[in-house]
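Fold this sequence, please.
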Amino acid sequence: MSLDSDHINYLVYRYLQESGFQHSSFTFGQESGITRSSVAQVKIPPGSLISHLQRALNYVQVEVNLTEDGRPADLDDLDAVDSLTLIESVQPEVCEMRRQQLRSRQNDKDAPVAMDESDDCEVSPAKVTTLSGHENEVFACAWNPTFDLIASGSSDSTARIWSLDNPEDVLVLRHLAPQGEETKDVTTLDWKHDGTLLATGSYDGAGRIWTRAGELQNRLTGHRGPVFSLKWNMKGDLLVTSSVDSTVIVWETSTGQIRQQFGFHTAPCLDVDWRNNDSFASCSQDMAIFVCEVGRNDPVKKLDKGGHTDEVNAIRWDPTETYLASCSDDSTAKIWDLTSNGPVHTLKHSDKIYSLKWSPDTSSKLMLASASFDHTTKVWDAVAGVCIFTLEGHTMPVYSVDFSPSGKFLASGSFDKRILVWSMETGNLLRSHEGGGGIFEVCWDKDGKRIAGCCQDSNIVVIDFDG
């Protein structure tokens, strides 16, 4: 079978005539020369163009509906995914998106679905402490790795350090703006690994380093836009920050001076994570991931072959420093190693993936958890690239997940105001707590006995967990 321009033009000409567009059909016939072609003498049934387009659309839809092993998709999966329109059928990226949605649903059905099997998993009010004091949403929280303290950051332009021995004893770290400027949100924070210093990032473009007693040690100025992420290296002599200004800066923490600035990205940088004391990865709205090394002026590697097709929200190195996980608005998480030309595995949800975490327990199985706007959390065998559990319990986007220090439990926080705790042995729901606002972040303390969640309603909730 072959196509030529005369055949196509004749079908279009007849369609215009049959649809009553007499002037348009005359003009088109003259300009295309179809009225002078021998093809114009051929008799064809009315509606031939529409009939052939419908057949072509059906053929493309059949291609999209095939599973990875070439079988037709189940009818219930087809009902859940929109059929292609004619225009969508000629857009390869839309066809691929539909294909991935179907295959993601198939993968979800193949994986065990974890639901609540407990009649009473609601946390007793006696085991919940509410830390109140912030005046607006609390975006970030982090337990001190050594002392019984928790830090929080809010859009009220403050970070706070809370003592759980005396919740009324709170240190308020005010992020003061230069004279004449408005104060800005505290967007991110991270404790130094020995627990002696706290770093905070703000919408004012500055990073700050505070002592455990709440004293400002250094103000880090160098970015020209809000700071979205920052991390201490394990040694504690360097801090890395990423910004809306598309750059990443490594700072000397003892002096507050810039050690090196990296300008590889072309759009806002959304996250950074250290691999070791000297190298780190960064991700961006430009869909790229760079692995960089302090002291080196070019990237160690750019991870883009087979990469994400939308902005990359978060990245994390695994505990062995072998694999890098990334997640994106393209509804996928990817696992990379530096020896491969592309991702080792592509892991799929049906909506944006906002955050991910590695299990700290690497003794039996290397596990990765991903939190998605599709209301689910998935737990993956990172080496095999298969889904171990699909955790269904939330009714709104899941913003944060965190493994307990033992790796036996996983906490998830959602904008449905709930914190859920899951068993990583069975996938069962063990605990549930509903707060007063959407949950932006959840984190476990160093002993695995308490879970904190920071909330849209300006509070931090702390849940006692007895396992």
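Helices lie at 5-18, 22-32, 48-64, 75-80, 86-89, 92-110. The CA atoms of residues 262 and 297 lie 8 Å apart.
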